[in-house]
Amino acid sequence: MSAGAGPYAVSAADVTAAAARIAPHVLRTPVLPCPAVGERCGREVLLKMESMQRTGSFKIRGATNAVRSIPDADAPRGVVTHSSGNHALALAVAAAARGMPAHVVMPANASAAKRAAVERAGAAVVTCGNTGAEREAAAAEVERSTGATMVPPYDHPWVIAGQGTIALEVLAQVPEAATLVVPVGGGGMISGIAVAARALRPDLRIVGAEPELAGDAAESHRTGTRAPQRPPVSVADGLRAALGELTFPMVRDLVDDMALVSEGEIVSAMRLAFEEARLVIEPSAAVGIAALLAGRVGGRTDRPVACIVCGGNADLARLPWLVPAGA
Predict the structure, then answer these.
(1) In which residue ranges of the chain is pLDDT below 50?
(2) Is the pTM of this model over 0.85?
(3) Catalytic-role residue among 11, 48, 57, 59
(4) CB 297, CB 207: distance < 8 Å
């Protein structure tokens, strides 16, 4: 890869190369109209269904690009990461497809369903504390003891470029879109998307959507200074991470706006997707829909808005409108 050749860690050329590298291993997910949301916010809404992707989330893109970029000499030692779930599962599956071992550090508060899925995929799971610092420290120890290649969940050029391939697809599928809404956690997905989209469609409005309780990216975008991680308490467990050193400059410079949504708005959007749109999505994937429903996206309403539905790995035993907060 030509990572670093330019103002950011990843270039549009890196994203294009990643698309070719991962094409045999990931799905070209559909874009579906969503009248249930569009009628409520007075604009045409199209959903990019990464929840229908292999492993149930967009994370397989970055994980596959990383695994397929590792030199043959290093492959037998495998890969290691820290993740609350979707990146963990994606890396486990991508590594297994190449015949590589995978070591996954997961926080104690990770979804039980996601942990079980990672274990079924063949990864060795190590439990750690719930903060980002604890996760990183535990993963670093596994890396030291095994010699495995570290593949962070978002702040790595291979991962960012892989996630950016979403932009190439959605802009080909919805060339008339005026606005793109992207959920934001650590920023790997929106960074890759923004780098690619700015090269293809400089006029496209890119809006990040984030839980209020994990609003570091919105603060970082507003102040121009990278904010620390917030306490990991949002129901959108995949979006609790803070922006990384690599993703922050891209979010700061290439994203037009950030929309914050409350926990209640996330749960309501997820429930609407289940009950009216018949879509199984996880809370993190509902954040962009919640921002649209709350009227916080802005931009032109006479042209479609595309929204990334980033994952469908919901814990059906603990749907948030059935389980009391904190239970």
Answers:
(1) 1-4
(2) yes
(3) 59
(4) yes
